[in-house]
Design brief:
Number of strands: 22
Structural class: alpha+beta
Radius of gyration: 21 Å
Helix content: 25-40%
Largest sheet: 8 strands, mixed
Strand content: 25-35%
Distance between the termini: 23 Å
Number of helices: 10
Length: about 400
């Protein structure tokens, strides 16, 4: 057991676990809001943003998909504008490209119209397009109707994370995996890392992403959810000239996934994906990565079986697209008929840290909970990178309140 002595020499005031964009934004926000506050960030990898932050399509989301009034809606709309400003200020690669959301079947038209209304409720400018107008933006894309969302963009989120780390003034410790946490309500927290170091702090902030529920339990708090990892597999388009910008299908509102889409990145390449299949490890970036303890934990969680029961048809389609490039190509051809299987070149996958409740509910909004001397970020998948600056401020506010209360 890690011991906290009665006469403590604290290493920092706030200890942030996790060096992804949310953890680093939190550190940045704390030092901006309360100069002089000592912040340490523990990251188990050898650099920042190695998981969800660095393994996505790099899209600055507009906020059009999210329920009005939700944290996702408020933070994404605000965060998109702030992210563009932050990138401009620090010279980080970015572009406001706009995007198309395209209906390819008549059954999708009501959902497309619903997105128009949701966009307006969230304060997002939206242009409705007929089938012939789609070619104004994307000559090779076909559909029955579409909407153009002008505030969507792309950026280098890894570059943003590095800048947040540098500008925060926090001590960043890489290669520092959290092994144990000893929390004493009257004293603080002491964390033992994989290197054998003990870090003592007054307040702990858990931004551990794929491992956030585990860190919460180490702290002694019951998160009342589990992270169920879903792998998103990507391809790169061998003929990038087929796509000018960003093209999305109409998403299924029953799921927090946006479907296979096409994204021209800041590198000029076009990324195609992702699908969403269960990962066999929290960092299971391929079918060959299996961690029995983590897989056992997923299978032991009742919510995992509830998901399987309710959504097996959807899951079967995603699995088929995972193992068959031909099936994946068919999904892409709904939007981009000119694409062929030979146009799709395998690319790096990502894993989404999806919080699932005991009854199988996929947590749809950002989820932040507090414990004694602790703040836990328990659900922060997409659009968390877009929304990272306002998320960081919210988590920082709660951490500083906890700090003032000790």
């Amino acid at each position: 057991m890690v011991q906290v002595s009665s006469e403590i020499a604290y290493d920092c005031d706030v200890l942030v676990v996790g060096g992804g964009i949310v953890g680093l934004s939190t550190a940045y926000a704390i030092t901006r809001a309360a100069p002089g506050t000592r912040v340490t960030v523990l990251e188990k990898e050898t650099g920042p943003a190695r998981h969800q932050t660095g393994r996505n399509s790099g899209v600055i989301h507009s906020g059009i998909y999210y329920r009005p009034g939700s944290l996702k809606a408020r933070f994404a709309v605000r965060g998109a504008a702030e992210m563009v400003k932050f990138c401009a200020e620090y010279g980080i690669a970015h572009s406001v490209t706009g995007k198309l959301i395209v209906a390819t079947e008549r059954s999708e038209l009501p959902r497309l119209h619903g997105l128009v209304q949701r966009g307006r409720e969230n304060g997002i400018p939206v242009r409705e397009l007929g089938a012939a107008q789609i070619a104004e933006y994307e000559p090779e894309v076909e559909g029955l109707a579409a909407i153009h969302v002008g505030t969507t963009g792309i950026c280098d989120f890894v570059g943003v994370a590095r800048q947040l780390a540098e500008s925060s003034g926090a001590e960043i410790r890489y290669g520092a995996e959290v092994r144990r946490v000893d929390r004493r309500p009257e004293l603080g927290v002491a964390v033992l890392t994989g290197t054998g170091d003990v870090v003592r702090a007054r307040v702990l902030v858990n931004c551990a992403g794929l491992h956030c529920d585990e860190v919460a339990r180490l702290t002694g708090d019951d998160p009342e959810m589990r992270i169920v990892p879903f792998r998103g597999e990507y391809y790169t388009l061998a003929r990038p000239e087929l796509v000018r910008g960003l093209v999305y299908p109409v998403p299924d509102p029953a799921f927090p996934f946006l479907g296979v889409h096409l994204t021209r990145g800041i590198d000029g390449g076009v990324h195609v994906g992702p699908n969403a299949v269960p990962a066999l490890a929290r960092e299971g970036y391929g079918w060959g990565v299996v961690r029995p303890r983590e897989l056992g934990g997923t299978l032991a969680w009742p919510g995992s079986w509830q998901i399987a029961r309710r959504h097996w048809r959807y899951g079967a389609g995603e699995l088929r697209r995972s193992v068959s490039r031909r099936a994946f190509t068919s999904a892409v051809r709904r939007l981009l008929p000119a694409v062929t299987a030979d146009d799709l070149v395998p690319s790096a996958a990502g894993v989404r840290a999806q919080a699932v409740l005991r009854d199988g509910t996929l947590v749809d909004d950002f989820l932040i909970r507090e414990g004694v001397r602790a703040v836990h970020v328990l659900n922060a998948p997409s659009p968390a990178a877009t929304a990272s600056l306002p998320i960081g401020r919210e988590v920082a506010r709660r951490a500083l309140e906890a700090l003032r209360g000790v």
